[in-house]
Design goal:
Blueprint: H1 7-16, H2 18-43, E1 87-98, E2 101-107, E3 122-129, E4 132-138, E5 149-155, H3 161-167, E6 174-181, E7 193-199, H4 203-214, E8 222-229, H5 238-247, E9 251-257, E10 267-268
Parallel strand pairs: 7-8, 8-9, 9-10
Antiparallel strand pairs: 1-2, 1-6, 2-5, 3-4, 3-6
């Protein structure tokens, strides 16, 4: 509406915008009727029961509905991880992937210990940094098949408290971990296909699910991955992705770059 609400200005606005005015009036009428009907309904009361006659209405007995108790945490007590407490694992190796990305390999309790992370779950890493308890969620690039170890691919950010802390660990130092965590857990046959969109180290939870499913030749679940990065050098685990694409017809990957080199045949731009 115009800022000056004179009769002449309103008339002029109606001439220029007749549809808008009619829609506004109709909406106001409908809202008014709805509020009036609601007010009438709220005034209605149930018929009273004479004092001499005991009430036989089911409403006379009020039963309070209670929520069922939460399901207890179920996990393999022989696994390395615990969802109830943080456990400390020793850094065995640090592998340089790029100028700002590393693979951190931690030892489990024994060379034969299973990590115990269901498909689709993640792990919480925790540390005291500058006097504050900091926790972050990470998905390992290793699986339960890799006994005695767990690998994390982490990109170190200048302002990333946890990534900088982990990068500063020396071989032999320990890091607190707890898991499994997360609401999603893959079950065979739960979906016909998955569409995946990832950028940078966000590829790790995607590959965790896809790799595990593709190991089962009887699982026909399809995967379509769009993986976005700044440049070609930033594409993490590209050899793994290309190998999965070549071996499995139900897995397809499409790369998108913000800074594409000459001759690039993938996508270009932001996701």
């Amino acid at each position: 509406m115009p800022p000056s609400f004179t009769f002449e200005s309103l008339l002029e606005y109606f001439k220029d915008h007749p549809v808008k005015v009619l829609v506004a009036v109709a909406s106001a009428v409908l809202i008014s009727k709805f509020l009036a009907n609601t007010a009438k309904a709220s005034k209605k009361t149930k018929p009273s029961v004479p004092a001499s006659q005991p009430s036989t209405s089911p409403a006379a007995t009020v039963t309070k509905k209670t929520e069922p108790p939460a399901a207890p945490l179920v996990y393999d007590k022989n696994a390395a991880l615990s969802p109830e407490e943080y456990r400390h694992f020793r850094l065995r190796e640090k592998i340089i992937v790029s100028h700002n990305t590393r693979i951190f390999r931690f030892d489990l309790q024994t060379p034969e210990t299973v990590l115990g992370l269901p498909i689709g779950k993640h792990i919480m890493l925790s540390a005291t940094i500058d006097g504050k308890e900091i926790s972050r969620a990470y998905t390992p690039i290793s699986s339960n098949d890799d006994l005695g170890k767990v690998d994390f691919m982490i990109k170190v950010y200048p302002q990333g408290a946890m990534s900088k802390y982990v990068d500063g660990l020396n071989i032999g130092d320990t890091l607190a971990m707890k898991g499994p965590r997360g609401r999603f857990e893959y079950k065979k046959g739960m979906k016909r296909a998955f569409g995946m969109l990832a950028g940078g180290t966000g590829i790790t939870p995607m590959l965790q699910v896809a790799k595990a499913v593709l190991k089962d030749s009887t699982d026909p679940t399809e995967f379509s991955l769009i993986f976005a990065n700044v440049s070609a050098d930033d594409i993490l685990l590209k050899s793994d992705i290309d190998e999965m694409t070549a071996k499995h017809p139900n897995f397809k990957a499409y790369y998108v770059l913000n800074e594409a080199p000459e001759g690039w045949t993938g996508g270009v731009g932001f996701i």
